[in-house]
Each structure stands twice: as structure tokens, then as C-alpha cells.
Amino acid sequence: MKSIMTFRAARFALPMLAVLSLGACEGMSDSQRRIGTGAAGGAAIGGIAGSFSGNAGWGALIGAGAGAAGGYLFDQSQRAQDRAFQQGVREGYVRGRTGM
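C-alpha cells predicted for Glycine zipper domain-containing protein:
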């Protein structure tokens, strides 16, 4: 009977947790969102991998660090692409105005 009550509580709590955690990203910048997503994904994968060796906490901690670093690198790549695009737009506008 106790396992049925635990399952019912989890069935309600997990979707509620997911909804609340998604709402936390509302006021974040793109950089914060990318780094946070990397950290959360890394923590999840690290926790799963660490659970096989009996150290889920350490796996999650290491995974969060690695995921945050990956999110940061991805953010820097996206920023560089955005800067290059904006520079191309500016140069195209100037060339169009001067006829060159």
C-alpha cells in the first residue's frame, strides 16, 4: 500500500517540478540559459553515470561542471556567429547605399 501512495505522489510531484523549473528560465539571458541547460544536462547524465559506481552525487557534481563548461563554449560559439552575421548585414547595407 505504501508503494502505491509513493507512486501517486511522484506522479503528481514530477510534472509539477518540471513546470516550475521551466518557469525559472523566463528572465534569463541567452547566455545564462545555455550555460544553465548545459549544467542541468551534465548533472543528469553525470548522476546516472555515477550511480553505476555508487557515487551519484559526485557524478552529478562533475557532470554539472562539465555541462556548464560545454554550455559556455556553445554560448561563445553562438555569439561569434551572431557577431559575424551582424557584421555581414552592416557591410551589405553600406555597400548597397554606396553602390559598390
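Residues 89 and 95 are 10 Å apart (CA to CA).
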